[in-house]
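User: Um, any thoughts?
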Amino acid sequence: MIHYTEITDFEAPELDVYARLTEAQLLNRFEPAKGMFIAESPKVIMRALDAGCVPVSLLVERGHVNEEAAAAIEACGNVPVYTASMDILTKLTGFQLTRGMLCAMRRPALRSVEAVTAGARRIVVLDSVMNPTNVGAIFRSAAALGMDAVLLTPGSSDPLYRRAARVSMGTVFQIPWTFLDKNWLEQLRQLGFKTAAMALRHDSLTISDPCLAAQERLAVVLGTEGDGLADSTIEGCDYTVLIPMYHGVDSLNVAAASAVAFYELSKHPE
């Protein structure tokens, strides 16, 4: 039976996960098994549940309990459901809830790079992409446009941060991903991947070059929003690749560039 609790005390400890813990505190690097994340909106919550994530509690705007949120509430089973008006929830969390719903969930264990890339032919590497909105948008494009997995360097934003997962429309739960170690270029090489750095260089290949599509296993490497990829990373990759542009434009937002790259580079030999 679903148990609903109307919020009357902002300081209640069971609301800490929604109101007072930062994303970093939820991650709990020192005790990963106790880590949590916040899923926002019924669609994201349902995709997290479908991926096997375990719900802990729900925070729902009162008017959504019997509307859009109903199916997600039922799917979460016997967990506490905290409710209040939208004004009170906005004051509690500091932001307006998308579709009036949040769910606190246990973080799944990180998989190994070998497990995530098993059978993959086209993967993404995000090197220090720090903006959660961009990470979420890149995941959505990767899932939609045929990439097999996403790998992130330690400097990248966590895909389970609330904003990243929401912008991804829950695709962070649909496409395999994990974090890389420092020596990731060598690790990918040992796994049989050729690496393609997205960067403007005098020797860059255009994104439609046939030799890229001919690669059996290809990793598309995208850099941070401001400076792009480090010179050492570009030099360590097998190829440097650019997107031809017009009207004097020399760059795209990393999320926009990723969609173009994935559409073209997800093609592989049959």
In short: The radius of gyration is 20 Å. Residues 132-144 form the longest helix (13 residues). Residues 90 and 96 are 5 Å apart (CA to CA).
